[in-house]
Amino acid sequence: MSQSTKNPAVEEKRVTISNKHGEKLVGVLHDSGSREIVAVCHGFQSTKDNTIMKKLAKALVKEGISAFRFDFAGNGDSEGTFGYGNYWREADDLHSVVEHFAGQNRVVSVILGHSKGGNVVLLYASKFKGIRTVVNISGRYTPKNGIKERLGDDFLERIKKEGFIDMKDKKGEVLYRVTEESLMDRINTDMHKACQQIDQDCSVLTIHGSADTIVPAGDASEFARVIPNHKLHIIEGADHGYRSHQTELASTVLEFVKSRLQQHDKSTTT
Predict the structure, then answer these.
(1) Among 130, 161, 188, which residue terminates a domain?
(2) Could you give phi then psi for residue 148, rounded to 5 degrees?
(3) 106-117: string of b/e by CB count within 10 Å (b at 16+)?
(4) What distances in angstroms separate CA 85 from CA 44, 152, 202, one per listed residue?
(5) Do residues 51 and 156 both lie within one domain?
(6) How high is the pLDDT of residue 156?
(7) Which superkingdom, per the lineage (predicted)?
(8) Closest to 197 in 3D by CA, of 230, 226, 231, 232
(9) Cα end-to-end span (Å), the chain
(10) Among candidate residues 57, 118, 51, the one with its CA nearest the CA of residue 90
(11) DSSP code of residue 72
């Protein structure tokens, strides 16, 4: 196998990558020395330093598998402007990451995302091909769902009238602005169509918590119904952030990723 042995000497390196728009994406490479890398993608209004991102990266590298967690443009330490939509744009950011490591004679062989990041890795697999292992953690099957819970029942009327909606915290400070363009980007993102275009030889694992109140667990069943080569794992009692289920989440991811990397090694040596 091309994975390193367990508990290797691990380096954490800050890496900066330019996306197709010339914006610098900032990430952290947990480098075990393995040629293969798992790209770890954060969700909406999140960053590479989210608890799930950090714990999964550390769990992977502990098993000798390098992991790269990074901020999409407009998030965290990366350059760019935050956008409410940006689903396909973030898939392009991920492509810049894949190309960067390919240029260093390494291969991003697994892409993993949580919440909106789950959508992004599936969109990537539908557009760019080449990736044979995808992990979708709590992705939303219909992106237009969940909008009114965040923006209010009258969000369409408000945005048509004002051109934008400012989302504020309890102190009244603006967290981010939702423009009509970014809203329509989210509404028009068609996960059903994208999932139908994922290749048969791309193996997808969807993980979802049964107690998720942000994205219903029923969305996971929809992914299972549409994606050609799919495995579904429901974690009983887990919420959207897997706050009390980090261990089961990590073990489920590790089992799948290690199995897929072993299969890939066999296919390249036979």
Answers:
(1) 188
(2) -65, -30
(3) bbbbbbbbbbbb
(4) 9, 17, 26
(5) no
(6) 86
(7) Eukaryota
(8) 226
(9) 13
(10) 118
(11) P
